Amino acid sequence: MNNFNLIDQPWIPIRWLNSATDNPTLVSLHDAFTRAHEIADLDCLPHERIALTRLLVCIAHAALGIPEDAEDWLDIDFGHDLQSTAPSYLQREDIHPHFNLLGDGPRFLQSRAKFSSTDVGYPLSKISFHLSSGNNPKLLDHWGEDPRPWTEPSAALTLLCLQNFFVGGSMASKVKGNGPALKSLQMILLGENLAQTILKNCLDSETLRSSGNGLGSPSWEGQADTQLLSRLSPTPCDLWLTDDLSRILIEQGTQQPECPAYRDPYATIEPIKDKDDRLLRAKPGQGIWRDLHLLTNLNKAQGQNAALNLQAFNERKEIGENTPLWVGELIKAKDAKIEDATESTFTVPHKLFSDEGRHLYASGIEHCDAISKKLYGAIKFYGTTLSQEKPPIAEGQKHYWHTLDQEHRKLIAMSATPENYLTQIGSEHADDPWTLSVRQAARQAYDAVCPRTTPRQIQAYTAGIKPLLRALFPKEKPPKGAKPQSTQANLNL
What we know:
Blueprint: E1 12-16, E2 26-27, H1 29-34, E3 39-42, H2 46-64, H3 70-75, H4 82-90, E4 122-123, H5 152-165, E5 186-189, H6 194-200, H7 205-210, H8 228-232, E6 237-241, E7 247-252, E8 269-270, E9 278-279, H9 292-295, H10 308-315, E10 322-332, E11 338-349, H11 355-385, H12 393-415, H13 433-449, H14 455-472
Antiparallel strand pairs: 1-2, 1-3, 4-7, 5-10, 6-7, 8-9, 10-11
Helix pairs in contact: 2-4, 2-5, 11-12, 11-13, 11-14, 12-13
């Protein structure tokens, strides 16, 4: 039986910097480090990117150690020998066997201690979040009850993702706790190549201690703990793959504490007024860009809520004119099922990490949220006037936000030069790109779902749009004692 060692065998999907056709689409852990400067990026699904990045950072820290602080990072040139030190670490006699996917000896993120020969387990497809299995249908997957053919690379990646995102439920109701990467938006700093991406997401001791945690040891070096490296190589489940890759056995593993007991290094804290802070999460059906000002909060006076990797990156003075960020999450529903996966990539200007840039960005989000509520009321009033049982509110909201999803880069660009926009977004005299985009999106959404071809429809359209226009084109209150001037909105009927 082939043990399929993950250090030597290709299983990590990547994209190369050059376009040469002889470069493989899968690489081993050894090649992922030795050729890291030639690899552009990982090439995988959102949850796979999170799990793989956490593993690569874990190996980097295990091989290189951890700098004491930002100055120490620069003094020792942390990571200059990543391409040689990490592969040497992986080839150590006490490390290499622990990356076998199969075999009778130690296995990668697996343990057989709690299983007997009579245990049946579950089909391997049942732990793959994007595949259908049993009563878990998928839109793009229609495989029946017949066993699926599995390859070692896909089985290894599926196993790694399960340990990072274990969600429990009927499959393993006896296992308590979730995977450490679950229930939070995960931020990954992107570099020009895979080597830079790995190093940008490494931490220093000072930043790590600020969250009340230590480095610890990877799970393959001994007994798993609840510190950083064990969370990056998690074993919330004791797993064992059958030799034919058809089934997997599951038992209780090392339960990892969750927020607020432990703060995940790639998660952002979302401050809630008069409540305990919580991890920022993706909202189904809502673009991640609407929370970008929370993701970039590096203000110590406000609790420095940004992810720890971004804090450490900032302390090293490496934030440049533009910083590429990847943000994504595997979204868990309330019934212990995976609901969706979401991801976004941003090129964040330097000023968006400052109070001025974030304030402008936040005011832009507040404005489009306020207009969304006015659009809701306008469409509802239109429907009520026509005695509609169900006004097309949902359709209008979808149209509005879909338009702004395509325009949100204008708001990011504005935050790069907040000093150029002295007039408040959405105010009477505002003519900035974001105010104009919000006005256009609201009018187009209202027009799309509120037809005006009959006299009754025209009457309802006019009645509904008046409050919307007053919100889109507000008038400043005149000084006390001044006589109001009569104005009439242009309805563009």
